[in-house]
Design the sequence.
């Protein structure tokens, strides 16, 4: 008896009336929203416009779903086109079966179309969404848990996955939870890309290439543990060969791109500059509001000072009124003093004139006496 294991859900679908709610579909939808949300934040940080990632995802996601389903159907065609199989099942995507290689390839085509319509470079957009794609894969792998598929070899480890379904050739038992291994690996790949992008400023598609290379490393050893039916080439599963080839292509791209176009793109979305004035206007309006508040505060302070000044002016006017009452007396006194000073000056000038006249008369009398004395003396000498 196993004391510890990971249980499998008894049902992979819940029915809300006539509407089926499938766990596989929910995991994919959650992953898509997570990838778009994180990609949008990274795109804005790179200088892009908000909403661009979602607009391009409208093209990339449907193309990716179709590509993933096509890859699965082509590589496992015997599940749908062999004797006793119904080819209509190839369209039942909710039953599981998406190949990541086809999803990335055809999803890139859809993203390229969306980028051309928006006039932005595909490599820059791919760099922004690369970690989000890894996290989306981590969520999507839990859809395999709901469908009890993609498990590994039998094991007695405490984290073994308990398979209870016997449909499609399954044998109930305890197996390696390869879906969980890949989910955790994808989480690590996402954080690796975020760290490397911040540390080395990856650009021109190199962050996306790093995600592809790192994912291929994990997919190689996880694929080797799986026991579900698959095509083999030289003793290895087809997906192992695919992982090796894609890994080499991603590494070669990183090396060549770093030599031909080092650094990171300075402008990822030219039309994003149109949003800058709007942000500047908001900032300016906020600053204007602050300035207006300051101006109103100063105006209120000045009005308060003016009110105090008016009160002071009223008090000064009362004092000035008192002074104006005493001013007529002061002016009359000054007039009287000026009149008295004028009269005294005129009197003094008149007395000075009289004294000058008297002295003149005295001088004339003295001169007359002296001339008479000289005449008398002259007549005495003659006699």
Sequence:
């Amino acid at each position: 008896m196993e004391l510890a294991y990971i249980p499998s859900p008894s049902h992979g679908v819940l029915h809300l009336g006539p509407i089926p709610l499938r766990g596989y579909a929910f995991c994919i939808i959650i992953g898509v929203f997570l990838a778009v949300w994180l990609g949008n934040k990274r795109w804005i940080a790179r200088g892009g416009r908000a909403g661009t990632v979602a607009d391009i995802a409208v093209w990339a996601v449907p193309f990716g779903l179709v590509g993933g389903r096509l890859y699965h159907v082509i590589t496992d065609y015997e599940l749908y086109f062999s004797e006793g199989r119904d080819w209509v099942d190839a369209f039942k995507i909710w039953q599981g079966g998406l190949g990541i290689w086809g999803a990335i390839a055809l999803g890139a085509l859809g993203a390229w179309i969306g980028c051309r319509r928006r006039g932005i470079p595909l490599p820059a957009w791919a760099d922004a969404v690369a970690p989000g794609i890894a996290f989306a894969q981590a969520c999507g792998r839990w859809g395999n848990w709901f469908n009890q598929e993609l498990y590994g070899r039998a094991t007695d480890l405490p984290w073994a996955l308990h398979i209870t379904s016997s449909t499609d050739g399954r044998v109930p038992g305890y197996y390696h939870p390869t879906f969980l291994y890949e989910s955790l690996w994808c989480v690590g790949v996402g954080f690796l890309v975020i760290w490397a992008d911040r540390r080395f400023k990856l650009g021109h598609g190199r962050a996306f290439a790093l995600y592809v290379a790192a994912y291929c490393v994990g997919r190689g050893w996880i694929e080797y543990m799986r026991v579900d039916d698959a095509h083999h080439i030289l003793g290895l599963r087809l997906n192992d060969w695919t992982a090796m080839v894609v890994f080499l292509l991603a590494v070669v791209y990183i090396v060549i791109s770093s030599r031909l176009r080092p650094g990171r793109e300075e402008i990822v979305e030219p039309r994003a500059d149109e949003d800058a004035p709007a942000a500047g206007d908001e900032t300016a309006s906020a600053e204007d509001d602050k300035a207006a508040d300051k101006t109103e505060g100063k105006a209120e302070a000045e009005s308060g000072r003016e009110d105090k000044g008016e009160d002071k002016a009223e008090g000064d006017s009362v004092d000035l009124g008192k002074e104006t009452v005493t001013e007529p007396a002061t002016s009359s006194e000054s007039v009287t003093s000026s009149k008295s000073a004028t009269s005294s000056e005129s009197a003094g000038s008149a007395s000075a004139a009289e004294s000058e006249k008297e002295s003149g008369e005295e001088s004339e009398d003295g001169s007359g006496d002296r001339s008479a004395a000289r005449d008398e003396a002259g007549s005495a000498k003659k006699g």
Notes: The mean pLDDT is 78. The radius of gyration is 54 Å. Residues 275-382 form the longest helix (108 residues).
